[in-house]
Amino acid sequence: MQTEGGNTVSTNIVEQPAEHGVSPNSDAGFTIDETLAQAVQSGNIPGVVAMAATRDNVVYEGAYGQSGEEQSVQVSADSMFWIASMSKPITSIAAMQLLEQNKLQLDRPIGELLPELANPQVLEGFATDGRPLMRPAKGPITLRQLLTHTSGFGYAFGEAQLLKYVQKEAIPDVTTCTPNAFRLPLMFDPGERWHYGISLDWVGKVIEAASGQRLEEYFQQHIFGPLGMVDTTFAPTSERRERLMPMHARLPDGSLQPIPFELPEDPEFYLAGGGLFGTARDYLKLLQMILNEGTFNGLQILRPETVRLMAQNHIGDLQAGKMTSAMPELTQDVEFFPGMEKRWGLGYLINTEATPEGRSAGSLGWAGLANTYFWVDPARQVTGVIMTQILPFADPAMMEVFNQFEAGVYRQLDA
């Protein structure tokens, strides 16, 4: 993937054997191993796990770097990561399971299920005395709009006006997992445009209301358990926390510094849009299920027609994927595939053209704030995931590693 605004750099690949990458294809895999090893050895990234698979087989697995307080723990396929917004596709899958059971509908006003969304308000600006200027939204919010980020909700870190509102009204950050964090206005009328935000956190509340289960319980019973995603959870145990790769900040001089990072261990609500922790190995199973149109290891998670529905464009001619930053310590301004029209399905970004790395038009993908990324290519029947823990999002060094990893996977397929 390329980002605009100069956010790409080159990673030099040196001719030396990989230390501990695993590659069924020695030629193409060797190149991927070198890319990952050199990125870690040079200090460009603190550690990385990358995996790729076809419908039936894992075709690449590599892990490089050290973690732990003393940097003494080897990064491995079982290393834990905060996957942040890579939680969103999982939440979307859960919502679609309930849609299959007729417990949810895509286009009914969601306020019928969640009264707190029955009368949404739009932020129009601020009065001269600083008071927020609000008006009623012109129409109701629907589940489809929540799933496609066209509801009007945003993130304070991605919108200056919303950040001003949050500061003025003393709204806690959504990562506090407290009910008051949801007291955000809409930035525009539902359906008017695409804007990334807390919509999927609201979908988490929708799932709980429709299923009668708390989100962790629902996910474990209906997604993680059936798929064998043994480590993915909103509430990591102490053993899993010992395997958690530390968070790092990219400093102005380009160096990396470990920083503290925690989400509440016993939250008032689970952060459906960004609260999950897990492993690359677990996430690859989810992606293989998507490749297999809803089935993995003989168990059906979704119907094939539901998987195909999720992969279709659901925002019409609206453009998706371009995001600005009001908090550069968390994310840079970023646009995946600049110059290309992007659409959004029910859970993923859709690229409408083939990419330089080899991804087919109509593929699916997304990412997490701490620089975790995935893609699913139904046409080529391949999927991949790569994870590190760096802030801000769209880190240039990690984006370049992702680009090279993805390109290497396609070279391996073509070999």
From TrEMBL:
<dbReference type="InterPro" id="IPR012338">
    <property type="entry name" value="Beta-lactam/transpept-like"/>
</dbReference>
<feature type="domain" description="Beta-lactamase-related">
    <location>
        <begin position="32"/>
        <end position="395"/>
    </location>
</feature>
<feature type="compositionally biased region" description="Polar residues">
    <location>
        <begin position="1"/>
        <end position="14"/>
    </location>
</feature>
<dbReference type="Pfam" id="PF00144">
    <property type="entry name" value="Beta-lactamase"/>
</dbReference>
<dbReference type="GO" id="GO:0016787">
    <property type="term" value="F:hydrolase activity"/>
</dbReference>
<dbReference type="InterPro" id="IPR001466">
    <property type="entry name" value="Beta-lactam-related"/>
</dbReference>
<keyword id="KW-0378">Hydrolase</keyword>
<dbReference type="InterPro" id="IPR050789">
    <property type="entry name" value="Diverse_Enzym_Activities"/>
</dbReference>
<feature type="region of interest" description="Disordered">
    <location>
        <begin position="1"/>
        <end position="25"/>
    </location>
</feature>
<protein>
    <submittedName>
        <fullName>1,4-butanediol diacrylate esterase</fullName>
    </submittedName>
</protein>
